[in-house]
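Data card: per-record layout.
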Amino acid sequence: MRIDVWSDIVCPWCAIGRSRLERAVAAYRESGGEAVEIRWRSFELDPRSPRSTAGDHAELLSRKYGFGIEQARQMLAQMVERGAGDGVVFDFARIQHGNTFDAHRLLHLAERHGLQDALKGRMFRAYFAEGAAVGDADAMGALAVEVGVPESEVREVLASDRFAEAVRGDESLARQLGVTGVPFFVFDERVAVSGAQPVELLTRALRHAEETREPEALGDAAEACGPDGCPI
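The structure for this 232-residue chain is written out next.
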């Protein structure tokens, strides 16, 4: 079974969604489910973002969405608590904002080596917990090398526009599917799930995709990041 997941590195609900999906896949496999392949699809929350955006995270959030600084800080504190409940560390004081296009290109390269999921997890941890600059191509390239992607290929990708069409292709497909927020999961091209749904629903989606042959959407609206709202 293949699971396609549209997400962005700077999306906290995507990091939580990945953690929940890991646990859902483990439960599904333990109950006798078939082998699962996860394919991470590109989705940029802000394609026009500069490579680097300086500023306090709460202040940037406040300016972007037009609410008070204290409300922004409260939202971030709540997200830290939610992340902790799913084993995801959020250190918003260290976050360095930036454009994610090159990071997505590197994820496509990592897929060629069977290392895409490893790199996705490493990028989430580096951005949200370690203060890595997501818009710094060299910093993201170093993460790719760290998980095992050949350094020569990383350099080649970053010195060219390789995989740019793959990123745009993922985003075009997302628009065709009506994806407006991430994470967005598609199980075996049949069962769609939107948002960071609970582990139990994701596990049910895996079993349902194995049994059904008809396209279907599961679950009510769940937390997600989109252009109009996300504590990023």
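Known properties of this structure: Residues 2-218 form a domain with the Glutaredoxin fold (CATH 3.40.30.10). DSSP finds nine helices and five strands in the chain.

See the next section for split statistics.
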